[in-house]
Amino acid sequence: MYRCKECKAEYKNKVEYCDCGNNTFDYIEDSPVASKQKHIKNMTLDEKSELISKLFFTLCIIISIIVWLIPIKPATTKKFPNQTKPKPAVTKQIPDIEKIWKDNPVNNMSTEKINITEPISTASDYNPTQNITLNNNVNKSKTVKKNSSHTTVSKPAEYEIVYNPPPTPKKKEVTQRRNLAKPSRPTYNPNSSAMLKYKGDLRAALFSKFAAGSIPGSGTCEISFSVDSTGKLINRKFTHESDNKTLNDVVYYMLMSVPKYLPPPSEYSGQTIKMKFVIDNGSYEITIN
């Protein structure tokens, strides 16, 4: 670092003249801290990363040494004052099996026989909708006779199941019920307000795909189709083709571009819908019925 002798201005690099016009300078050495900071600033990226890795490595070594120097206390077991000592195991002597068989012969053992008479009959596949009548013999009483050598248990309860099937309905009643279940469908009227609106909207949807301006000359063609319950156009065909091939191609492209429309009214049940196209040198007329 260089300092001007007159104005004491400092310069990192030596200049020929100071701002005050003096050309004599004193050389001043940088302090150790400043030199270190200057050295760190002048370090490259690789040198800085290497310095950081060395510092991190030394820090890890210091931490590991501190961990190893920490004393570990042995685990202490707590003693409870009321802790009882475990009782010694008691061994029992098992008697000889031959002695038991000799002291208790099979002939002297008392046996009891139980005979159950008159089992209760149960009904399988019970249906709560069936008509079932149960007849119970109440007069018979339950008797239990027990002797020293023989015991008899009797259960005289008896049930009789009688199934009475419901009467089958007649054919006329069945047909009347079916007719009442089906709602009556309105009759089809091609000139009703609902059908006229539906056909008008369908004509507009088809006309949006009809390129009338691209047809030269004149011509007339007719098409027919039907609509299913989901609005899909089915049975599409030409009922009359024009001599003008361009008109036929444009009408065919229109039908292919609108394969499906909105579902028709409830009164419509698949009747044929017809459309007629009349072109005369740019003017056109499209009818639907």
Would you spell out the secondary-structure blueprint of this structure?
Layout: E1 2-4, E2 10-11, E3 25-27, H1 32-41, H2 45-69, H3 97-103, E4 114-117, E5 131-134, E6 143-146, E7 151-154, E8 161-164, H4 171-181, H5 193-207, E9 218-227, E10 233-240, H6 245-257, E11 273-280, E12 283-288
Parallel strand pairs: 4-7
Antiparallel strand pairs: 1-2, 1-3, 5-8, 6-7, 9-10, 9-11, 11-12
Descriptive account of the structure:
- This protein is of the alpha+beta class and 289 residues long.
- The chain has a domain at 193-288: 2-Layer Sandwich (Fusion Protein Consisting Of Minor Coat Protein, Glycine Rich Linker, Tola, And A His Tag, Chain: A, Domain 2).
- The protein contains 6 helices and 12 strands.
- It has helices at residues 32-41, 45-69, 97-103, 171-181, 193-207, 245-257; strands at residues 2-4, 10-11, 25-27, 114-117, 131-134, 143-146, 151-154, 161-164, 218-227, 233-240, 273-280, 283-288.
- The strands form 4 sheets. A 4-stranded antiparallel β-sheet has the order 10-9-11-12. The protein has a 3-stranded antiparallel β-sheet with strand order 2-1-3, with no helix packed on it.
- The radius of gyration is 57 Å and the shape is flat.
